[in-house]
Amino acid sequence: HEQNIAHIAHEITERHHNEGVRLVLIAGPSSSGKTTFSKRLAIQLLAHGIRPMTLELDNYFVDRELTPRDEKGDYDFEALGAINLPLFNQQLLELTRQEEVQIPRFDFHSGKSIQGRIIRLRENQITIIEGIHGLNPGLVPDIPPQLVYRVYVSALTQLNIDSHNRVATTDMRLLRRIVRDARTRGYNATDTLMRWSSVRRGEKLNIFPYQENANIMFNSALAYELAALRPLAEPLLLQVEPDTPPHIEAKRLLSFLGWVRPLSLDQLDIIPDTSLLREFIGNSSLDDYHPESSDT
Fold first, then answer.
1. Dist CA 85 CA 139 (whole Å)
2. What is the C-alpha separation between 174 and 172, in angstroms, rounded?
3. pLDDT tens-place string over residues 101-129
4. 150 pairs with which residues across the strands?
5. Domain that holds residue 247
6. pLDDT category of residue 73 using cuts at 50, 70 and 90
7. pLDDT value at position 161?
């Protein structure tokens, strides 16, 4: 991974100097490892003399009552229309011109956009934005294409169970999410499995149609991760009640994990604390690293 991330950072640096790239958009499906990738990319850019600054796309949500609704009548926060695109594009253009900008901050309790901090992009800075719409040209229609570099992150497994059955990329991401949701959100496996079809629907609508727009793809899969995920995911899946809708899916995942020899707790401790897998299993040294502008 480190070599691939270093290569991407080098290419972004070259494009920054030669073509004026000022904006890096990172997108990928759920549990593909976008957050850790973004942070490791920021560190590599620093090594190239580029000071990255992150912008949170969530802060550009429109006020809640203006949020589009899905077919069930629920607020659809994953729709492109949930983002204040005119303001987002206007402020990105101002940042590329090195002007001072007061970015918004979305208050999730009140559902309102409020004024946030003042930032300015310096000559040697690049803005990194991670979000599901990063590959959709509709996100930044006003930004000249030569200023934008897009990265698609996904966990493309290359493992086969036997000569006819390979490990599905979707299963790998689902196991990552079950483990992370239990650790960070207090969800049980039943909760995560019940939400998964909705997550997949959003991916098919908002991410997969645009993956060809990426300048480069980063594969976040690790050869040993199923062995690392098994001892953490297995007890969670065993707790899914037999008479609940997700039980069949839990049984399938348990059967599939049975093909893998689990890592011991001592072996789990050996996984580097900067590993992308730590985003899901915990104890990442990058949790508290947030690349920011100093012009606050």
1. 7
2. 5
3. 999 999 888 989 999 999 998 888 999 99
4. 25
5. 169-209+223-281
6. confident
7. 62
Q: What is the pLDDT of residue 165?
A: 63
The pLDDT confidence band at residue 6, using thresholds 50, 70 and 90, is very high
Report the alpha-carbon distance of residue 180 to residue 280 in Å, rounded: 5
**Whole-number Å distance between alpha carbons of 27 and 140:** 14
The angle subtended at Cα 210 by Cα 66 and Cα 193, nearest 5°, is: 70
Backbone angles phi, psi at 117, to 5 degrees: -80, 165
Q: Are residues 136 and 249 in the same domain?
A: no
* Three-point CA angle 221, 177, 169, nearest 5°: 40
**Same domain (yes/no): 102, 179:** no
- Cα 157–159–160 angle (5° rounding)? 130
Spatial distance between the Cα atoms of 50 and 101, rounded to a whole number of angstroms:
20
Q: Report the mean per-residue pLDDT for the chain.
A: 91
* pLDDT tens digits along 21-47: 999 999 999 999 999 999 999 999 999
Indicate the pTM of the whole model.
0.89
> What gap in Å lies between CA 18 and CA 246, rounded to an integer?
52
Q: Which of 6, 28, 26, 276 is nearest to 154 (CA)?
A: 28
pLDDT in the model for residue 189: 97
Of 126, 154, 182, which residue is a domain's last?
Answer: 154
Sheet holding 23-27, edge to edge: 51-56, 125-130, 23-27, 148-154, 216-219
Q: Which amino acid is at 170?
A: T
Q: How many angstroms separate the Cα of 103 from the Cα of each of 17, 50, 116, 127?
A: 26, 22, 5, 13
Give yes or no: residues 141 and 193 share one domain: no
